[in-house]
Structures are given as C-alpha cells and as structure tokens.
Amino acid sequence: MQEYLQQLNEAQRAPVLQKDGAMIVIAGAGSGKTRVLTYRIAYLMSQGVDPFNILSLTFTNKAAREMKGRISQIVGSSEAKNLWMGTFHSVFAKILRFEGHRLGYPSNFTIYDTQDSHSVIRAVIKEMQLDKDVYKYKQVYSRISSYKNSLITVKAYFNNAELMEADAMAKMPRLGDIYNNYVERCFKAGAMDFDDLLLKTNELLTRFPEVLMHYQNRFRYILVDEYQDTNHSQYLIVKALSDRFQNICVVGDDAQSIYAFRGANINNILNFQKDYDDVKMYRLEQNYRSTKNIVNAANSIIEKNKTRLEKIVWTANDEGNKIKVNRTMTDGDEGRFVASSIFETAMNNQLNHNNFAVLYRTNAQSRAIEDALRKRDIPYRIYGGLSFYQRKEIKDVIAYLRLILNPKDEEALKRVINYPARGIGQTTMERITVAANHYNRSIFEVMQNLDKINLKINKGTQGKLEDFVTMIQSFQIFNKNQDAFQVAEHVAKKTGLLQELKKDGTPEGIARIENIEELLNGMRDFVEEQKELADTTGSLAEFLEDVALATDLDNEKGDDDKVALMTVHLAKGLEFPYVYIVGMEEDLFPSGMNMNSRAELEEERRLFYVALTRAEKQAFLTYTQSRYRWGKLIDAEPSRFIEEIDESFLEYLTPKTENRFKTLIDADIFDEVDKSKLRLNKPKAGTPPSKGPSEAQLRKLRRLKPVSSDTNKNFDPKAANLDIGTMVEHVRFGKGKILSIEGKGADTKAEIQFENGGLKKLLLRFAKLEVL
Ligand code: ATP
Ligand code: MG
Prior knowledge:
Blueprint: H1 10-17, E1 22-27, H2 33-46, E2 54-57, H3 61-75, H4 77-80, E3 84-86, H5 88-99, E4 110-112, H6 114-127, H7 137-149, H8 154-158, H9 161-169, H10 175-188, E5 191-193, H11 194-207, H12 209-218, E6 221-224, H13 232-242, E7 248-252, H14 267-270, H15 272-275, E8 280-284, H16 292-302, E9 323-328, H17 331-349, E10 356-360, H18 366-375, E11 380-382, H19 392-405, H20 410-416, H21 426-439, H22 443-448, H23 459-480, H24 484-494, H25 497-504, H26 507-534, H27 540-548, E12 563-567, E13 576-581, H28 598-612, E14 615-624, E15 626-629, E16 632-635, H29 640-644, E17 650-652, H30 662-666, H31 670-680, H32 695-703, H33 709-713, E18 727-730, E19 734-742, E20 749-754, E21 759-763, H34 764-767, E22 769-771
Parallel strand pairs: 1-7, 1-8, 2-3, 2-6, 4-5, 6-7, 9-14, 9-17, 10-12, 10-13, 11-12, 13-14
Antiparallel strand pairs: 15-16, 18-19, 18-22, 19-20, 20-21
Helix pairs in contact: 1-2, 2-3, 5-11, 6-7, 6-10, 11-13, 16-28, 17-18, 19-20, 19-23, 19-24, 24-26, 24-27, 25-26
C-alpha cells in the first residue's frame, strides 16, 4: 500500500479506494470527511486518472487551496496544477467565461457583488417611481435571489400566480417588474450577480446538450464537500454533470446543515441514494479532532434533534478538560473574561494566538470582544465583517480595473466617472443614461459616440467625457501585455487616485493609501502564486475573478498570529485548539428569530453542534445576565443549549443559574404544532425565506416576560379574549385572524390566517398573541 494511504483508517480508506461509481460518506464532525476527499483525489491520480478530469467542489476557496496543497505534497505539484477545485461559484464562473457567449454574455462579464446588486435595485426602484419604504431594496434583492436559486426566471415568475400573489400580499405587487428590470439592466451591463453564476450554468447545461456533454466528459470524477448545504441550483448542476459517468463522491453531515435560510436543502443528502444507480454509502465514526469530553458533549446535544440520521461518533483522543461554562453580568464583562482567559492560557502554555477562536451567533457581538482584546493588546482578526475588498478606496481601484475588462459595467463606471473629480456632473450622467436607455446601449458606448448624438452637453464637458474614454482605452491597451499587478499600479498612478489621497493628508487618507499599497502587494503575490500553482499568467481577468468571489476567509494568511473572531456559520469545516462560544443566551443562541417551529430550533441546535465541534482541546461557553440589544439593556437567560449538554461534561466556573423559561425548554411544545405546520406550511419551491420581525415586533419581543407554568395549565382562551374572528398579532407572523379554536386548557390551539399569507395552527399558551 502506498505510504499516504496508511494515514487513513480502514473506514476512511474504503471510499478512497473505490475508484468508480456513486458514493456518499455521511459522518459526524471531525471524522475525516474532508481528508477522505483529499486523499481520494490523490488516489485517483495514482490510478491514472488525468487531473484534468477531476472536479472538486468545496465550501471555501481556502479549503480548496489547502486540499490542493496537500495533494501536491502527495503526488507532486506539477500534477496537481490541472485539478479543478474551488467553490461552486468560482468553478462555474470560469466555465461561464468560456461558454457565456451562448447566452449573450461577453467572456469578460463583470461579477456584481452584493453592493452592486443593491445599487442596481435601488436605481430600478427609483426609476419606476415606487415607494422605497414599501419596496425595501434589501428585501427585494433577497426575494429575487431566492427565486434565482430555485431557478425561477422572470418568465417562470410571471407564469406562477401563487408567487405573484404572495408578493402582492407582502405589499409588493410590482416585484416581478423590478425583477425583470433588474435582470435586463445587469444583462446590458454585461454583468452577472452571484446567483446568476449558478442559474446561468443551469441554463447553459439544459439548453445546450453539446455543452453538457462536453463538461460531462471533462469532469469524469466529481467530488463535493459539505454536501448537506447545497441549494437546489447547485444540486441540479452536480446532478447534470455527473449523470453520464456517475463517478460522484459526496461527503457531508446532516447534523451540520446550517444554511436552510439561504435555500440549502437537506433532502439533497437524504435523497442521494435515489438519484444515482447503485450508490455505496460509507460511514466514518472515529473523530480525530476533539477530546472525549467535547465529542461526547456534542453527541449529547445533537441527540435532542428528532430529524436526523443516526450516527456514531467516538474518539480515541484523551478525555481532556470539561467544557467550561462562565456567566458574567454584562457583555463587556464577557469580553473581558474571554480576553483574560486567552491571555492566561496562551501565557501558561506558551501558545500562539492563532490557537484561539471566538465564535458568536451574530456579527454585532464582536464589538465587546474586540474592545476587550484590544485593551489587552491581544491581536485578533475578524472574519466576515467588512472585508478588505469592500473598502471604499479598494472598490475605487477595482472599479477602474473592472472597466478595463468590461467598459459596459455600469456600476463601476458610475463609481469612478467623477472620482477623482473631473467636472462630470450628475445632470450630464443623467442625460447620458437616458440616451443609453433610448438607444439600448451601454453608457460607455454613448460616451464613445457623443459627436453623433445631440445631448445638450457643452463642449467643455464633452471634452472631459472623451478624455475619460481615451484614458480607459489606453488602459485596455496597456493591459494587453502586462500582468494584473503592473496594470493596477499603472492605473493607481495615472487616474490620479493616489495623488488625490495624498492631497487629503488626514490620517484616514494615509490609511487609505496604505490599503491601496496592500492591494498592490496582494496582487503581486497573486501573480506569482498563479504562475507557480496554476500555470497561468496572473492576468487582470484572473485577478478580478478571484476578488469577486473572495470571502475574507480566503485571504487568511496561515502564519498570522491572531485570535480568530467569526460567526458560527463561517466556522464550518474549521478547527481550533481553544474555542470560546459567546452569547450562550436564549433569544440569541438559539436566535429569537428561529424559535417558532421545531425545524427552526433544530437548525439552531445543529448550528450549536457545529460550534462545539470546532474545538480540539478546550471549549468555553459564556453568557451574560444582561446585554445591550437593539440599543437597550435587556435581561438575558442562559441558553437552553447549555442545559441540554449532559452535565457530566460541564464545569461551571460561576454558580449555575436556572433558565426561567424552563417550561418552554422541557415541554415538547412543537410536536403537535409541527405536524400541522408540515402540512400547511411546507415551503413551495421558490418561496422566499420569511422575513425577520419588524422593529415594532422586536420591541414587543423585548417586553415579553417569562411564562409561569401555572398560567400555562389554566390557560383560558375566553379569558384572553380570543375567539373565532378575533384579530390578533403574533411577534413573528404579524397580524392575523383566528379561524378556529380547538382543544382545551393548556392544549388549546387556534388556526390563524396571517396577513402575510401563512395559515398556522398554534398552541395558544405559547403563541403569545396580542388581541388587536
Ligand atoms: P467537519 O465535519 O468539521 O468538516 P471532517 O469530517 O471534514 O470535519 P476533517 O477536517 O477531515 O474532518 O478531519 C478532522 C481532523 O482530524 C483534521 O485535523 C484531520 O487532519 C484529522 N484526521 C482525520 N483523519 C485522520 C486520521 N486517519 N489520522 C490522523 N488524523 C486524522
Ligand atoms: Mg470537513
């Protein structure tokens, strides 16, 4: 046996050595799923499979790079260069560069990031003269996004009365028209948004059989990590590509499915066996990551979920310390506790800071932790906040670079046409935009033909516009035989961006210059790495694609000696010796927005399972008695998840406090409600994720008092003034009308038709309804 295969246990070796066919590896956290994929690729290559024929899809590009690095060590780096590895978005963006012309896209199409998409939607809403308080752009975008991920095109939307009605009920009857305008606008700008990368790939593979055949032949071996979190659009792509050879290996853990809110569909994992002929199912049971205490505690948590596949996870690792639970008075104290604990642990054990991670449920929680770490001079890095590439000065440079490749890119053009200031005003741009719409051309094309159309723009301004066009064209020529770094350096100088910032002279201005320098350094590294690892030239086009799809996890430098701060969602697949899970409070973790059904609560529990299983040596759970939320100090209750852990794995550093919502925790409150929910509320394909509570609802939520068990037993709907026809308001579902009441006392249930379209059956003692 080759030496590297001995670095696997027998259960791991089995899927690695099965060269052909469809297989699924379902296994708990830390059991080596990602390792199996990595070694499987190495093995395939050792069996003569051309790396050119292997496609591997990962959750982050960083994970792909690490896998590639490991494979290079085993089989040699020149062999590994031709492997296709990356996220769904990055891999299919590449394919669309080759094939997008069939759908009318230029090969140098721009990838719009979320900010760009938001900006286009705002412009569309404004041009349609719709009320921006009714048509909130973020909400509109998230609906459009969920349609795209369910493959509901504009045409399909207008053929679907139900969807149109749902949007009308949500007071957005023009949503379809916005969708249509948004799509047209992006198309005209030669741009795809993130969801298009999947949607258009699907379109390509269904409309052009020869293209499908080409990529089926090319990707004879397909591997997918974190399969539990694929959405419908991704699922269909994998299915189509692997249909011919059926050499597909997916790995995942249903217990770690945490992206349902973004359309991930756990059925993809559950139905895998039906999708392919002769599927082999493998299970891994031994965890190599964590101590016995952590593994067993995590098992005791996930057992509480009813919807799950039975799995065994055990470890031969040491018993380890118990999980430490700590309570503080405020979130400030919580931050200080974490900081001093990290300080001491690092000191006592002579550890680098990158052995530590602080995980939280929501980004807003990072501030208190940051403050405390800063006071202690502990270096840290936040992931998932405003990423480097979202900073203004960086976006400015990138906008110029985008224009070089695709001058039709409207968002980029609007950003820099008058920055640095060149005396091209708003009115001029509006005139040009109107002309562009009229001639159905891009703004840049109109600017190139100003002498042919009469736009009432004075000679001086016209000259400035022409200068801008000439400048971009000169960059395009420069770009022809220079690499990404050289082009960017040239652009930063010639556009006057750097001079502008130097003139500024403020500390912010200086910080901006430094950031641009950092960008240039990064580009230089990129060019070198690209030549080294991927055998390409490091062109501007390659760089921009990398940037458009970069998450800041991707930019992590492994040698950074910093504490990692991130949300639990981002931590999936990662591991750290010491993990602090902060904000272990009811309404926060589990999130108050995700406690209305068993399904939602179970997703929160899976999220907690993910958090806990990131820890190798030691886990800490911290909570506070009061916390600032929504600008107010509120009383907090310890999370039910702490109590759900078998007590023998816990060590309380501070006296244990009871959760006053105990009735809610112990009672199987969702059982009956859920059955009706399953029937009534089964989400239809394309139903957008329900929106979060409004400000008013949140205010109400804050006022809620714990329910005492006595009132529960004697619950009387009449005394609460509830009857058929009563109009009520629910903290989450909004206003609704009671259609029927059934059951008695504590079991009384009401069927309520909510205005937002939902019909729900709720157990009244928990529903917290307000009579209107
Ligand atoms: P997750 O569900 O969190 O994504 P996973 O199942 O993908 O976890 P890996 O990340 O592949 O698990 O492995 C967890 C850790 O255990 C890694 O550090 C890995 O290198 C190590 N490991 C896995 N298998 C073995 C083995 N056979 N021998 C030694 N170490 C192993
Ligand atoms: Mg993994």
